[in-house]
Specification:
Elements (H helix, E strand, L loop, with lengths): L3 H68 L4 H37 L18 H76 L3 H11 L17 H7 L11
Keywords: Coiled coil
Pfam family, one: DUF4600
Length: 255
Amino acid sequence: MPSPDSDRKVDNTDDDDDDDDQDIMSEEDEEELLKREIEQEKRNRYTLSWSVSELEKSIADLNRRLIDLEAGSASEGDNEWKIRCETQSQLNKQLEGQRSWLTQELARQKAILSDGIVLDAKNLDMERFTEHELARLEVQLERQRNNLHSQLRDAEWQLDRRSQEFYHMDEIRRAYRAELLQANWAIQRQKLHRQGSRASSVASLHMPSEGVGRHASTSSTPIRKTTASVRILPRLQQKQISTQIPEEPGESKVP
């Protein structure tokens, strides 16, 4: 029959074996975990190297485009990107100006509201304010009224200035229009005068004068000299003349 000491020894050996197995399993797990971490790092390294190579290609392409733009030998696409960049830069400047204006306006409004909160005077319940609060409210409302009055004067001044500029530009426009009308009228007169002078010169070339025509006709047709033939007729007897010529009544015969 085994003794209890021997049983304890067997139990201790079993426990040691279990501990060794657990140590072995934990080492294997750690090794597997390290392998996974190494694989993950390799993948990350490959991804980073690919990203770096793509960025280098992009930088080289951008440098090439920049050189082409500076040299003035850029294509239409590069010009389009240049125009977009310039437009975006102008827009950024405008937005920066608006941001600075809004910052100044915010500071001004904070200065206005430094004495308290702006309240609507129409919907105020005077019963819930103390005398000190009412005095502060009165000062605040007075300040708002002065600010609004100054803004109104600024708006009136701007309106007057712009109206004067408008009338001045309108007068300039009318003067330019009158000058253009006068210039057009002068041009039309010159055109008509030139057309009339050309027509008169052409008519004088195609229609010769009367003296020139007569001279040309007399010189062109030769003069033919003709001699009239004289016919010799026989003399008539007195009797034949008397018989041929009848006597008028009331006249006597000539012996």
